[in-house]
Amino acid sequence: MFTIDRVDKSYPEGGLFASKRKQVLSGISFDWRPGECLGIIGESGSGKSTLGRLLLGIEKPDRGSLLWEGRRIEERTTRLGSISAVFQDYSSSINPFYTVEQALMEPLKLHNEPRRGLHDKIDRLLRQVGLDPSYRSKYSHELSGGEAQRVCIARAVSTEPRCILLDEAISSLDGSVQVQILDLLIRLRTLYRMGYIFITHDIQAAAYICDRVMIMRAGRIEEIVPVERLKDVESPYARKLLSMIIA
Ligand SMILES: Nc1ncnc2c1ncn2[C@@H]1O[C@H](COP(=O)(O)OP(=O)(O)OP(=O)(O)O)[C@@H](O)[C@H]1O
């Protein structure tokens, strides 16, 4: 279980040395249950990506705690093998001087995977994300957007984490490629028995892949609903947000 308890986050407003602070997240509390796909949706600026960075332990909260099975997510040892990430900008996620093979090796080496068997593992990962093993020698500029994002997904699953956080991971892709990547994520979830935290402004994508959806508004949680009850959300804001998109 990943337990987020009364998390607040603010940033200096008007430069690093400004005394005024902008409150970006306030009183965020929820649980991520092992194996589930939890969607986080909300308007631009509602704090989704900030929350994502806290969930990945990249940034620390001002107050509150983020505990992965009782251990602080800010600790590197907690994160290893627990949570990994796929971001929107696949082109800058892969080092342009690395081949696909080198990009996939990086997390495996950090994870101290034995060298023996790495070659086969990379072939297997490429196949699992729908790429031919011959892609191992390609550079990122030789890949389409969908292919590059498949490599990023292969890299995220390579260490077999319990959870992958996807921050707008399909937003930069064309419509048909978006569906292919969502279907790939659904398949991998079963294969690796893992779950996702799926940050998006695309409610249809969230409805396609998620079990529960958390609706954020101005740094607060407005509502958390099972996806099959999305149409019955209670808060007026969530209703308005959904009606704008579903209509
Ligand atoms: N490092 C930072 N320093 C200062 N302000 C920040 C920082 N990161 C985020 N913010 C501010 O926090 C607010 C929430 O931003 P965030 O990116 O988390 O929202 P979001 O819901 O992910 O938006 P979008 O959907 O547009 O990506 C914004 O007003 C943003 O300007």
From TrEMBL:
Record SUPFAM superfamilies: P-loop containing nucleoside triphosphate hydrolases
Keyword entries, A-Z: ATP-binding, Nucleotide-binding, Transport
Protein origin, superkingdom: Bacteria
InterPro entries the record matches: AAA+_ATPase (IPR003593), ABC_transp_ATP-bind (IPR050319), ABC_transporter-like_ATP-bd (IPR003439), ABC_transporter-like_CS (IPR017871), P-loop_NTPase (IPR027417)
Chain ranges of the ABC transporter domain: 2-243
Pfam families: ABC_tran
Recorded GO MF terms: ATP binding
Family: Belongs to the ABC transporter superfamily.
Protein name: ABC transporter ATP-binding protein
Source organism phylogeny: Bacteria, Bacillati, Bacillota, Bacilli, Bacillales
